[in-house]
Amino acid sequence: MRVPAKLNLQLAVGPPRGDGYHDLVTVxxxxxxxxxxxxxxxxxxxxxxGGEGADRVPAGPDNLALRAVTALRRALAGRAAAAGRVxxxxxxxxxxxxxxxxxxxxxxxxxxACNELWRAGVGQQQLVDVAARVGSDxxxxxxxxxxxGRGRGERLTQAxxxxxxxxxxxxxxxxxxxxxxxxxxxxxxxxxDGTAAGASGGSRSPGRPRAPxxxxxxxxxxxxxxxxxxxxxxxxxxxxxxxxAALSLFxxxxxxxxxxxxxxxxxxxxxxxxxxxVFLAASASRALDLAVSLSGAGVCRSVARATGPAPGAxxxxxxxxxxxx
Length: 325
Ligand code: C5P
Description:
This protein has 325 residues and is an alpha+beta fold.
């Protein structure tokens, strides 16, 4: 399987819910930075992780891909006679705990792979339901493309967008952020300044901070920019309510964002809960220039380029697997 990283072009976060989660309105966007996941029959369930940041991925039952395997087996409840034990092998290119939903991607890939391997015939909607139970971002990794997420992020509507390819530069940070800690920091910031939103991060000037209790809403300017396929407008409309929280925990990211904007990015923001910073470029060649300059500026650990939207979790012919993208 090949499965993409995701960015959030908008991430609007509501107040904390009773179950510890936050209601969201988000615009997910899959990009061409892929993990590769292989599932094979085995004597018992297990996982091997290699590649980028592999030593920081749990290799036991806590591994999100293994949890996905267990969740699918349970959903089948004996329907698939051959829902046997499997070994999952993950080749990571998506950095770990980077705000790019790499763990969720691996879980989505494991779901699709087991569905194939077991010939279980689970339809897309039931797979999405199982994915949503495994994690908030797993359902989107099945779908890919560009989609609006609501609820915890798991209720998805594919965004009808023209075939525009966007050119992104990703600046990987020297460090990690924990998603629950970033959400908790946002709650603290909001409690301190008395608003539900604080100032939304992103490249445009934030609108009115939301009042406590306000529901997060889809950004009409971003949706219209995506419909028109105008990268300049998309760049201006990027926003992320988690950004001030991520910056409060990882202040060095301010420099990274500022450097990318000074170097001509159309827009810049922290990806999800961070600490990866993402920059939109006007073309493939601008993205290359930006990537080279950002690497030289010493404001991040490493830099990658990616295009979006990318397809969701998909089987790749084995001849193509492992080929650099
Ligand atoms: O669903 P997932 O396990 O990916 O979420 C990780 C953590 O992120 C949650 O435990 C929660 O602290 C936070 N989160 C949240 N609201 C969401 C999604 C995630 O508070 N909508």
